[in-house]
Design brief:
Blueprint lengths: L10 H8 L3 H9 L6 H17 L5 E6 L5 H9 L4 E7 L2 H11 L5 E5 L12 E6 L8 H11 E12 L4 H23 L20 H10 L3 E10 L6 H4 L10 E2 L8 E9 L7
Parallel strand pairs: 1-2, 1-4, 2-3, 4-5
Antiparallel strand pairs: 5-8, 6-7, 6-8
Bound molecules: S-adenosylmethionine.
Length: 277
Amino acid sequence: MSRTHTKTPSRADAVTAQFAGSPEVSEYAAAHSGGGTPARYYRSRFHAVDSVLAGCPGGELLDVGCGPGMLVEHLVRTRPDAFSITACDQSVAMIDAVTAKVGHREDVRVSLGSVEKMPFPDACFDVVLATGVLEYVNVDRALPEITRVLRPGGVAVVTMLNPLSPYRLVEWGLYWPARRVLGRVEAALGVPPQHRHGARRTGIRALPARRLRHKLSGAGLLVEDLVFYDVTYLVPPLDRLRRRRDDPDSTVRRRGVGRILGTAYLIAARTPGRSAP
Ligand SMILES: C[S@@+](CC[C@H](N)C(=O)[O-])C[C@H]1O[C@@H](n2cnc3c(N)ncnc32)[C@H](O)[C@@H]1O
């Protein structure tokens, strides 16, 4: 008797699929608004990004893995005239969403491409933002590319989920595995697929801050700042039941043991040489 095996998609295919279509784009963009856990996470990330860009007067800025352009729209609104922005993503749907969000403006260009092999010449940006994207890619290919496109003295602002935070330990070690087991039990009991629990394959690979710092240094960047954000002692699913404090300053930490409670972190690192304007 022949058996059909469903082929598990590669990590790259899983990443591409989850950001490929308009429903995925809309779902991702919608998660930024409201009072839920994801929205609080994104607000905290914006706050962390703003804090490191506060000392940056402006210039050519690349947002790579830009998604539907939430950060581009935020920068256009909060730092008008500061940056000439290039928004780059490997997903056509995401790039279309950026144009739909910010419209056709002289100070925003869009570009289709991968952070692992970017369609830009050497040393053409003063700032490169890579928020929420390094978890999905080959970091050893992406970081040298980010260094390559930065001007001397330019700054890279990169983020990563914090695999050592209690939140991620519970989410990845207990919460999602429990939902998968429950889904299998429901399948065995004949529950229709649309009503089963589960957890989609994300392709996420997160590095602890110490390892990412090391890799940034290896790619020729000088680490200047490390900010843990979305600081919370609540773990899934309790974070969905209880509202957290939401004043932005309380959600980020640069010092102290409380940093470990950040569900993600941001690193700002500079290329050697003269400071960008
Ligand atoms: C979680 S979203 C982050 C979006 C946005 N940067 C933000 O902060 O909201 C990840 C984005 O990275 C993009 N992406 C994944 N792999 C990529 C790659 N190799 N090169 C460029 N973009 C990539 C996805 O298409 C998606 O838009």
